[in-house]
Amino acid sequence: xxxxxxxxxxxxxxxxxxxxxxxxxxxxxxxxxxxxxxxxxxxxxxxxxxxxxxxxxxxxxxxxxxxxxxxxxxxxxxxxxxxxxxxxxxxxxxxxxxxxxxxxxxxxxxxxxxxxxxxxxxxxxxxxxxxxxxxxxxxxxxxxxxxxxxxxxxxxxxxxxxxxxxxxxxxxxxxxxxxxxxxxxxxxxxxxxxxxxxxxxxxxxxxxxxxxxxxxxxxxxxxxxxxxxxxxxxxxxxxxxxxxxxxxxxxxxxxxxxxxxxxxxxxxxxxxxxxxxxxxxxxxxxxxxxxxxxxxxxxxxxxxxxxxxxxxxxxxxxxxxxxxxxxxxxxxxxxxxxxxxxxxxxxxxxxxxxxxxxxxxxxxxxxxxxxxxxxxxxxxxxxxxxxxxxxxxxxxxxxxxxxxxxxxxxxxxxxxxxxxxxxxxxxxxxxxxxxxxxxxxxxxxxxxxxxxxxxxxxxxxxxxxxxxxxxxxxxxxxxxxxxxxxxxxxxxxxxxxxxxxxxxxxxxxxxxxxxxxxxxxxxxxxxxxxxxxxxxxxxxxxxxxxxxxxxxxxxxxxxxxxxxxxxxxxx
Length: 571
Description:
With 571 residues, the protein is an alpha/beta fold. The chain is built from 14 helices and 15 strands. A hairpin with a 3-residue loop joins strand 7 (345-354) and strand 8. The N and C termini lie far apart (121 Å).
């Protein structure tokens, strides 16, 4: 075996009947296999047929020693089949040359190991290359995100390269592209809406200008013709006319007066819309004003069989306001109340509430007439609106009385409420805030200054405060009217009402700055308190367009006057 197996260094047999501990080697000792030069193994040799206490065993021992190894193994096998008792004979020690075994294994498996190593290295390199592709895709996506962040107004998304079909990355890329396309679509829609809004605004301004020009032309022509008719009627000698001729003249005169009144209302409404009507403050007695109105309409109510009642819940007191416009408002409301009340009464109620720096005057006109359908409450303040627009309607009228009332109420910074039930009656309630006489000295604060108040729908209370401080206020609802007024007259300040959108204010401010020559007006944009949180989003654009100050709407006399004084000093 030693000659045929070069890996076996030696085989030794130790004869001993006593067991020896710690001779067995661990098969799992991998350190010896890798680093040791030799490894020894010890195995016990036992026999099932040798009796060491018998004398005959000596002969057997001699004969056993002379047997070959194969014969001994066969006899041991046969003895193992006949008996189960075994006797320790000794130990066999086999020493393996591990170094020689390793060299032999290397010689026989070197090519295979080399091939496996090369394949493993190539596989690792392939995996590393595959792992780099997602990283490149992520870097490409990151670069595109940086480009989009640095250029918010970019119209075309840069190409996002894709080297590896990684599902999560593909999903992120598709989501990013979809979101960008949606953003572009929203941007295009927004630009289209802005352009459409600008077109509508331009058309609206053009139509309003044409409408105002048409109204001015028609009313002027009709007024001129009516003045000729009225003048001719006044030149007639009534003493030379017979009864029939006098009746005809009275009919013509009555019709002419109604037409003149309607034309005056239309002209006045046109002037209010153009901003040509102003508030003129003066001291007046509310009791005397109501008494004058009752004297005017008492005969008309009695002629129709109606009762005209006044209920005044305050003592004699002096107020400061535009008494002429208040009287006109009450006259229109009383005229309508008497017209649309076939039977019953018309009640005018006056209440006065005093505060520290102002007074609140509340006047109501209530009738027991036909009432107004709830669906038409908001429409009655539209110009030329008629609940019954048929040619055979029972009640006459041009439909401009209540629109004038609403416009004047807004000019004064007052409010009007309507409560009506069809078939029961209607009540109009007007609430007007007026300064006390003790604070009338503030009227000289802005004396000699001209302000343009540009508003969209409602004048609000700010215009009245400016007039109360002594300024001459021109009210305009359209950009072109503002430009025309500034070209015609010297304007010290243009105020943009809080209901003007910032984009419209930017547009008008740019036009004003381009049209200015030597004189520069202050431009102030008022925003409502709830817009304060969005100030950063529109203030920069307004300042770039030429707006000097952006301020939250202030309606207190002292605060407003102090603020205006600082602005005028800075100017």
